[in-house]
Write a structure and sequence with these properties.
Blueprint: H1 2-12, H2 15-22, E1 27-32, H3 53-63, E2 68-69, H4 72-80, E3 89-96, H5 100-111, E4 116-120, H6 122-127, H7 132-141, E5 149-152, E6 155-158, H8 164-181, H9 185-203, H10 222-228, E7 233-237, H11 250-268, E8 274-276, H12 284-293, E9 297-299, E10 318-319, H13 326-333, H14 336-348
Parallel strand pairs: 1-3, 1-10, 2-3, 3-4, 4-7, 8-9
Antiparallel strand pairs: 5-6
Length: about 350
């Protein structure tokens, strides 16, 4: 209750507008994934939340009172000094390349004059396959899973699915355990796919059966990407296999960055400028290789605002919340909530 009162006070007292004014020369980059309502595709209900169209519309409307929407291309030009820095700029980026970014989100983006950047993992677009996070989600929900113990390396995880919230937490914990047990990113991915395959054999069902028509997991095709490129959106690389780059050796990291860029350029007939690090995983070597490959920027999952002169290969982004009240979400989306959390942490230290 105290937090809700505080959020409301900050928003309606004018302090939120003061915060935006103070940071008028910084650029706010937002991070989104899927945009779809359960009513739009009730065939199943994924365990990780997507943003509803109503919520996207409502918050873009609120943000438009504080910011002007610009493209990532323009934002990078401003941050690098190649273009005059405009005030109160905000950018929308979508990770993964879900088809619902165009079918569900695009009409709302057009309403507010937003040109978003969509990052695609080339393997999944070319091979027409679902991301592992969606494949395993669907597979788990297709079998009797509550109370089942799943072996993971020399450990195990028990799936608690008596309630929706328990199931969500168990799914998140399971993926975390896999990453802890298999430090090698390629091995970890292989093991997760093997688990998905075992569950699919058990149920006789697979997300691949409905993938192309599925509103939740379906990805854009190259034809759809070409059709909407520049007219409705911009596109960047999200690597080939959606591996966590910071967990790869030099050779594999180079392959992921270089090959995805070349594929994007072949399919779109233009230079691919921007890279999005899957799951926000990167390191100094990632930046060095990305620069050598010819990218001009890289976006992370680290929260915060971006200033002129910042490293263009470690651009901060603020996640677009799928839940929460309007006042809290506006503090979050403007970066104020993150700033206050950091300030509180420093004061306690």
């Amino acid at each position: 209750m105290i937090k809700k009162i505080f959020f409301a006070f900050v928003r309606y007292s004018g302090l939120l507008r003061v915060w935006v004014y103070i940071n008028r020369d910084k650029i706010n980059i937002l991070m989104l994934h899927g945009v779809i309502d359960h009513e739009a595709d009730p065939s199943w209900n994924p365990l990780w939340d997507r943003l509803s169209r109503e919520r996207l519309d409502r918050y873009l409307g609120m943000l438009s009172r504080y910011y002007q929407f610009v493209s990532l291309d323009d934002a990078v030009d401003m941050l690098s000094g190649n273009k005059r820095l405009e005030r109160n700029c905000i950018v929308l980026t979508f990770d993964d390349g879900y088809r619902n970014n165009i079918t569900h989100a695009l009409p709302i983006l057009k309403k507010y004059g937003v040109t978003a950047t969509i990052f695609v993992a080339t393997k999944f677009v070319t091979e027409r396959s679902a991301f592992l996070i969606d494949r395993l989600d669907y597979a788990l929900q297709s079998v009797k899973i509550n109370g089942r113990k799943i072996s993971v390396g020399d450990s195990s995880s028990t799936i608690q699915a008596a309630s929706r919230e328990e199931f969500k937490k168990s799914y998140s914990d399971l993926r975390t355990l896999f990453r802890e047990q298999y430090q090698d990113e390629i091995v970890c991915t292989k093991k997760l796919n093997e688990l998905s395959e075992d569950l699919e054999k058990e149920s006789g069902k697979s997300l691949s059966d409905i993938f192309e028509s599925d509103g939740w997991s379906g990805l854009l095709t190259w034809d759809e990407i070409r059709k909407t490129n520049h007219t409705d959106a911009e596109y960047g690389s999200h690597t080939v296999d959606h591996y966590r780059l910071g967990q790869l050796d030099t050779a594999e990291m180079s392959l992921q960055l270089d090959k995805s860029k070349l594929i994007m350029e072949k399919e779109l007939g233009e230079v691919c400028k921007h890279i999005c690090y899957p799951v926000g995983s990167y390191n100094s070597e990632t930046i060095t290789i990305a620069e050598k490959c010819g990218y001009i920027s890289g976006v992370t999952t680290e929260p915060g605002l971006n200033s002129k002169g910042d490293n263009l290969f470690s651009l901060k982004r603020i996640s677009f919340p799928t839940k929460g009240g309007d006042n809290e979400c506006m503090l979050h989306l403007t970066g104020l909530q993150h700033y206050l959390a950091e300030l509180k942490s420093r004061l306690r230290a």
